[in-house]
Each structure stands twice: as structure tokens, then as C-alpha cells.
Amino acid sequence: MQKAGPGSLQVISDFDMTLTRFAHKGKRLPTTHNILNNRLLINEDSTKKMKELLNTYYPIEIDPSLSPEEKLPYMVTWWTEVHELLIQQRIRKDMLAQVVRESSAMLREGYRVFFDCLAEHRVPLLIFSAGVGDVLEEVIRQNDVFHPNLHIISNYMDFDHTGVLQAFKGQLIHSYNKRDVALSHATALRELHGRPNVLLLGDSLGDLNMADGVSEAQNILTVGFLNDQVEERKESYINSFDIVLLKDETMDIPNVILRHIVSPEMASLSLRGNQSIFFLPHNSSCFACSRSLSSSTFSLSSLGVITPSLLRSWFWNMSATISSMVIPGFIRPFPSETCSLINSPN
Ligand SMILES: Nc1ccn([C@@H]2O[C@H](COP(=O)(O)O)[C@@H](O)[C@H]2O)c(=O)n1
Ligand SMILES: [Mg+2]
């Protein structure tokens, strides 16, 4: 994928709990459907009913002992009942921006690097979501990353001429029918043709089918975010995705993969707190990072071929020089296990 470069690449990603965070400071964050569970839009009874439906069907959605075929009818019931309830509540289009603003939904840390990098290199990003399209668009817009390379397949609301919800458009999309939906959209997504390499991101086993509509796919690299019921589901995720990220609320790994594909000549670099971490470039050269004191720009210079001692000294030097650097999207606490690994004599 790296040899073929960004011109052959497309990214297909799920939205809820893949591009958005699952939790923050120990609190569950909402999906696009749950963002709509706001008293500005729906009454108290419906709020209760939506929660009951979530408590009934979410455990089925993630139950590792049930097959996708067994889960399917329950998913159809869950989505259908919630959509009917939202229609009955006569949701207003002009309130959506406000409920998104009031919600605690967050894109994963490092999201700006991800969205901007894809746009800069003209790599199409297909967001394939069983959530609510109008809400997910608003989340992306409010985070300022709605770029022209974005394509979205989702459940879109149909509003009447006064801006009141009257139906949902097109085929219902739920967690376990993404294959059918992918196949039915295959010809429409012309911009994605001729891009045989796919980076696929998802948090559900149903997301693995999102690339089924890609004609003549050559390589599909799948990354699975395992957010919930980790121990129970780990085995099936490891057997199904190429890379499994356990309770990782960042876009760090997708960003490193992208950096490797779009600019393989540069060290892929990420700075965290007052420590630093960098990812090796494909030719095994190492780069040092320094910041100009007069501006916020920073430069990379080659240090030559990596050796363990060079690595260690680089880390020590960097941690001293970058402690005050602020590079949005890159700074994050550096895990202590990684520090001790880097600083160990071997
Ligand atoms: N009423 C519902 C229905 C579904 N969900 C969750 O939304 C997720 C689907 O969106 P993706 O972007 O991940 O495809 C799904 O995993 C459900 O858990 C919900 O919260 N409420
Ligand atoms: Mg999801």
C-alpha cells in the first residue's frame, strides 16, 4: 500500500465509536442516535423508551455468543422502533445543531490530523454509518473537518417543507447489513474506483463488510477499535481484524499508517506531553525534531540510521527540548510502560 501511494488509497470508516470516542474520563459518550435523546427534541416518555430500547438491544448487538444472522432481526427491531419514535416526536431540523453542540460527543484524539491528512493528499474518506447521517455531518462540521474528500453513507432524515421529521430516507442501515448496503452503493461511488487499497476502520464485526462494494480491491487493511466487553470479545476481534486496538481512544495508529503511506520519506512523528515518541520511517533513518523559537513551525533533520543507543539518546534529548512545545493534535500523555521500555538498557 505504501509503494502504491496515496493515489491508490481509499479509507472506509465507521462513525459511531470508531471516529468518535467511546468514553472520556470514565463516562460513556453518545452515539448519533443517543445525541437525539435530548429533551429539546423529544418528550420524557420517549426519552425513557429510547433508553429501554438501548438497554435491551445493545447487549445483543455486542454479544459474542450470537452470530450476525441471529442478531439481525433484533437490530432491525431496535433501529425501526427508534426511528418510528423519532418521527412521532416531530423532530425539527433547525434544532439539530444545538443538540449536537450540547452533547458530549467527541471525535477521537488526533482526529484533525486524520481528516486533514486525507484531504491534503486527496484520499477519499467514505464514512459508512448505521447512525444518523444528519447528526454525524453536524458533529464533523462543528469540529471543522468537513472536507471535500468526504463521502457519507448513513441513515438520513427526511424533513417536510416546514422542517419537521416525517421519515428516514432509503434503505435502513444497521450494524449487520453493511454488506448489502455496500453492494447497493458500489456503482454510485465513482470517485472511489481505481483505488484498490483500502484502510478500513470499525468498532463492530459488522463493519468488516464495509469494503465489500470496492471493485478490484487489492489490499484491505482492517483496524478494529475494541471499546467494550474487551475480554469477552478479544478473541473474535483478533481473528477478524488485522489490527485490534484495545480501549484506545485515539487516532494514533490510523494516523501512523496514513503517514507511512502518504509521506514515507519522512519520519512519522508524534509528540506527547513532555515526552516524545516517533515511528520509524520505512528506510530506517531517524529524524530529529526541533522548533524554531520565533514561530510555531518545527523542522526535521536526519540523524542517520537508527541504533538502540541513538534511539535512547534521541528520546532523552527530545524530552528536554520539547517539553514546552504545543502541536495541536499530537500532544498526549505518554504511557509509563513505553517510557520504561525506551529507557531500558537493552
Ligand atoms: N437506536 C440506536 C441504534 C444504534 N445505536 C448505535 O449506533 C451504532 C451505529 O452507528 P455506526 O456509525 O457505528 O455504524 C451502533 O453500534 C449502535 O450501538 C444506538 O446508539 N441507538
Ligand atoms: Mg460503530
Automatic annotation (TrEMBL):
The keyword Repeat does not apply. It comes from Goodea atripinnis. SUPFAM superfamilies: HAD-like. InterPro entries: HAD-like_sf (IPR036412), HAD_sf (IPR023214), Pyrimidine_nucleotidase_eu (IPR006434). Monomer. It comes from the Eukaryota. This is 5'-nucleotidase. It is found in: Cytoplasm.
